[in-house]
Amino acid sequence: MTLDELRDKIDNIDDALLKLYNERMELVHQVGEVKNTTGAPIYRPEREQAILNRLKSQNKGKLTDAAIDALFLEMFAVARNLELPEGVAYLGPEASFTHQAAESKFGAMSAYLPISSIPGVFREVKKGTAKFGVIPIENSSNGIVSDTINCLDEYDLKIIAEVCLDVHMAFATVSDDITKITKIYSKDIAFGQCRKFLQDLGLDEVEHIPVESTVKAAKLALKDETAAALCPAVAAKLNNLPIRFNNVEDDTNNRTRFFIISDFENASSGNDKTSLLVRLSNKPGSLVNFLNDFEEAHVNLTKIKSHIVEGESIFFIEFHGHQNDAHIKPILEKHKDEIKILGSYVKEIDDI
Ligand SMILES: O=C(O)C(=O)C[C@]1(C(=O)O)C=C[C@@H](O)C=C1
To answer: Can you give the pLDDT at residue 323?
Structure first.
C-alpha cells in the first residue's frame, strides 16, 4: 500500500474512533446522571481496573498492557471530567514526582492544584477545594514519609488508590564544561541518592545547595553557567535546562509509592490492598495476638512499620484484601477500638 492509501485507512479508523468515543461519552454522561441522584462517587478505580483487566485478557493485537493502560486511563480521566470536573491537589511544585504520579491517574484534562506541604494537601481535600489529594507515602531508599502517616492519622479521609513511580534523576546544566561547575542545586535528599555519580565525576567536593524542590533547583541552575541541578528530567525540560546525564541516581531501582486520598470508600475489586493504623495496648503479646488473627484467616500482611505520633507508638499495617471481604471484616470488627482503617484500594504493586 502507498503512504496515501495507508493514511486514508488511518483517517477512516480515526473517524470511527471519534464516533465511538462520543457514543461512549454519551453513556458516561448518563452514568454521571445516575450517580448524581444517589451521590455516588464519580471515580471508581475498581471499575476502571476491571475494564482494563478484561481488555488486556482479550487483547490479541500490537498493543502492550502498558499501552492499553496509557490509552484507557487517559480516556477514563476525560470521562470523569465530563461527568463532573473535580480538582486534584498534589504535593507540588509543578513537575514534582508527585505531579507525575497525579497525572498518571488523572490524565491531562484534570484541574491540578500544587500545594507546598503534605498537611496542606490533606487540608484542601478536607475543605473540598479539591476532590482528590496525591501525596508520597514511601520511597525504596528513604522509607516511610512521616508527614503522610501523621496526616492519615489526623484527617478523616480515605486512601482510594496507590501509584508507584520509578524515580530517576537527571544532571542538568547550561554549561558544556563539567569542570567549570562550582555548585549544584537540589533537594537535600537527592544529593544522598546520587552520591556515587557525584563522586565519579569529581563533583562531590563542589558546593551542594539544598533547596525546597528539584524544580526550584532547575530554575536556579538555568541562571548560572557555573551551576547544575539534580532534578527529574521533566523539571529540567519544563525550564529549558539542558540535560547532560540521565538516571544519575545510585540505585536505579529507586521507587516512590504515592497515595490518592479522597472522601469516599471504594467497593471491592477482587484485587485489593488495605492500610490501617493500629494503636495497641501496652501489654505483653498485644502485637502478636493482633497479628495472629490475620494469620489464622490466611490474610497476607505486606507491611508493618512502627511510627511515633506525639510520643505514642503506632503501627502502619497493610494487607492484601478489602475491608469488607468476608474473612477480613470480623478481624477488623474485633479490633475496632484499636484500629483506624485508612482505606481499601486496587493493589497496583505487591510492595515497594
Ligand atoms: O462506571 C462508572 O462508574 C463510570 O463512571 C464510567 C467510567 C468509564 O469511563 O468507564 C468513568 C469513571 C469511573 O472511574 C469508572 C468508569
So the answer is: 97
The CATH number of the domain covering residues in 3-83: 1.20.59.10
> Which pLDDT value is given to residue 18?
98
Specify the residue with its C-alpha closest to ligand 1, atom 8: 76
- Considering the four listed CATH numbers 3.30.70.1350, 3.90.220.20, 3.30.565.10, 3.30.70.260, the one that applies to the domain covering 268-352 is 3.30.70.260
Residue 254 is predicted with a pLDDT of: 86
Percent of the chain with pLDDT over 70: 100
Low-confidence ranges of the chain (pLDDT < 70): none
Q: Kindly report the pTM of this predicted structure.
A: 0.87
Is 184 buried (19+), middle (13-18) or exposed (0-12) by CB count in 10 A?
buried
- Show the cell assigned to 320: 492484601
Phi/psi of residue 65, nearest 5 degrees: -60, -40
- Give this complex's ipTM: 0.98
Identical topology for domains 86-167+254-264 and 172-245: yes
Instruction: Determine the topology of domain 86-167+254-264 in CATH.
Output: D-Maltodextrin-Binding Protein; domain 2 (3.40.190)
Which ligand 1 atom is the nearest neighbour of the CA of 27?
6
Q: What is the pLDDT of residue 48?
A: 94
Q: Say yes or no: CB of residue 43 within 6 Å of ligand 1.
A: yes
Q: What ranges do the domains of the chain cover?
A: 3-83, 86-167+254-264, 172-245, 268-352
Of 76, 106, 269, best ligand 1 pocket probe by most atoms within 8 Å of the beta carbon: 76
